[in-house]
């Protein structure tokens, strides 16, 4: 057994204490609230960021509306990656987030997708046929992807034809689930949900042309709580960096200005 | 005070809860009777199955319903072969989900009520020549009346309060699957806190009154039982 005398013991305590102080100077820990549609990309970003910086980030996934409500009630988040622009902006206006930190980290792309590999023939034709039971879209009142889906249907002049066949997911993740389980034969879902590194994972798809909907911008913001957290601001810088953008693109989002 | 959408949701919820309660009373009573009287080795497993929705997260139930009701699931295959299409995103699908979800809230009070009758009245009826079916309809059901009351109220209230299952299989269709709890969720998510508040308050008042009536009734019926004894 190792026996310390008093001085050695005090030294040991100081060293242990110092190492804690040191690590908290160099490496911070940040909690990031992430819109659930971005969860896969965020996990990759977080892993790369942790390797590179030595900081630690904890990701929490959920709906942007709920995050907004929680942040307004002092939830312990440092950064918010929203699914839209409205909520980060509202947080800035309510002085809960830092105005200068606001930026668009990704633009979502919309696809018409079916789990059936024969259903969609790379065009909007199937929407004009009567050969499907339901079409799932995200709820336009809640989700930016839903607003975009509505725009697509309107600009194709199909609002009346499709209104009886429409089912609404609470968010784009649930919308995808409705189509993946084939309860809805068609759905307007996120490109990032059905393409992995450029390959269609299953079923059949039509990539909706960008002129059929306004850009689906997803904004990030530094929250008041993360203001002096080094990990939080470094993570946002990493998301903005060319390396971060490449990762984000590989998950099926667009970056930069349209 | 309430928007048109809210009113539609309120009436849909009441309609759903009424339908589900009636179905559950009809199906749940024989099941509860069997559970109360049987010595079968299946009593434990069946009782546990009935109680499962009490402990399972509604999302689990909803997720499996989505899979079983879907075109490749067992129920989906049956409904498709009957030309009914699939049941997700429909009122009928919601009824099925709610019946499963609220099952223990109806079966358990009924089972307790049937067990409380004891063997004696039934044995007496049997010696007087009552068949098992006779005994069920003319002894068990009338004697278990307080149990039926509690079961109906709890089944109804629990269906009104249902959220997770509906969210998973509903598809949020106005007048068809958009019930009050989903409407509240949507209001909150859309940051429409005033609308959310009004509906939520209505739910609290409703739930309180329901529970008050159950507890009030229990007290009364206990007094009656006591007065029989003394």
UniProtKB/TrEMBL annotation, chain A:
GO terms for biological process: molybdate ion transport. Keywords: Metal-binding, Molybdenum, Signal. Molybdate binds at residues 64, 172. It comes from the Bacteria. InterPro entries: AvModA-like_subst-bd (IPR044084), ModA (IPR005950), ModA/WtpA (IPR050682). GO terms for molecular function: metal ion binding; molybdate ion binding; tungstate binding. The complex is composed of two ATP-binding proteins (ModC), two transmembrane proteins (ModB) and a solute-binding protein (ModA). Belongs to the bacterial solute-binding protein ModA family. This is Molybdate ABC transporter substrate-binding protein. The gene is modA.
UniProtKB/TrEMBL annotation, chain B:
Residues 10-214 form the ABC transmembrane type-1 domain. GO terms for cellular component: plasma membrane. Its main location: membrane. It is a multi-pass membrane protein. InterPro entries: MetI-like, MetI-like_sf, ModB_ABC. The chain crosses the membrane at residues 12-34, 46-67, 87-107, 148-169, 199-217. One of its GO terms (molecular function) is molybdate ion transmembrane transporter activity. Keywords: Cell inner membrane, Cell membrane, Membrane, Molybdenum, Transmembrane, Transmembrane helix, Transport. Part of the binding-protein-dependent transport system for molybdenum; probably responsible for the translocation of the substrate across the membrane. Belongs to the binding-protein-dependent transport system permease family. CysTW subfamily. This is Molybdenum transport system permease. It comes from OM182 bacterium MED-G28.
